[in-house]
Amino acid sequence: MQNRLKHLLETGQLAIGAQLRFGSSAIAEQFSHAGYDWLVVDTEHAPQTPPGVQAQLQAIGNTPATPVVRLPKVDEEQIRLYLDMGAMGIMAAMVNTAEQAEIGARACRYPPQGSRGFGPHRAWRYGFGAEDYRRDINDHVMFIPMIETTEAVANIDDILAVPGVDAIVLGPADLTYSLGVPFDFDSKVFRDAETKVLSAARRAEKPVGGGPYGSPLDLEPLTEVIERGFQAILLGGDEFLLKVACERALDNVNKVRK
Fold first, then answer.
1. Any bridge partners for residue 145, and if so which?
2. At 173, which helix (H) or strand (E)?
3. Which residue, of 48, 146, 190, 206, is most buried by count of CB atoms within 10 Å of its CB?
4. Confidence (pLDDT) at 257
């Protein structure tokens, strides 16, 4: 059993990830073989289905990449379902309080550390990996709250203090809306909130994830977020990178069209 994402974060290394929305197991496998350390199957902003999520988890499972499922909120039933399918982490959107974080963190672990109901499916290799799974999974699985509102920023120290919160991810777009400065990532109010989150994470010795505030194909935005202290980097995804590839291919066509 392995969790590459957790290992990289615990050893102070960068962990490069991407978000997948198209629901394609082939795309998930392709991203894994490309060399991403972790991949987020996004069930919040895309019409994913449980069988489709499992197919993507199976594809990622053939590689060293760590599969994480993104949920629209802390939902104990959904957490149990996707962990039983073999997800090694849960990223939950809109976690605003320590109470919500605790529910999510406990839902990811079996007693006595948590409240997860027992019944792994693919996760323990259909029973062929039962002993290792029962012994080790609580130490390998991750719960990752997303910090996306002014309320979450105000409660950031309490959220980070929850046992079982392994990392956090900053959701910049929703946070700018919550702060009243939509998509203004250079505004003082957003930068102050970002700094508060990063400073709290340093005090708690927990890693922070996020993406560049610009194209993931450009070096400067990437180096900026790394220099600010982000460690779990979300670098593009299937939707965005396909869009960019289409644009660039057609730009070349337009240059030679008569």
1. 92
2. helix 172-179
3. 146
4. 84
Please give the model's pTM, rounded to 2 decimal places: 0.95
The Cα-based distances of 217 to 211, 248, 252 in angstroms read: 12, 12, 18
- Counted domains in the chain: 1
Catalytic residue among 33, 45, 121, 140: 45
Range of the structural domain that residue 143 is part of: 4-256
Mark 83-93 as b/e (b = at least 16 C-beta within 10 Å): bbbbbbbbbbb
Contacts from 30-36 at CB under 8 Å and sequence distance 24+? 31/65, 31/238, 32/59, 32/60, 32/62, 32/63, 32/64, 32/65, 33/63, 36/65, 36/235
Annotated active-site residue 140? The verdict is: no
Q: What is the CATH number of the domain that holds 242?
A: 3.20.20.60
Q: Is the pLDDT of residue 214 over 90?
A: no
- Given a cut of 70, whether residue 258 has pLDDT beyond it is no
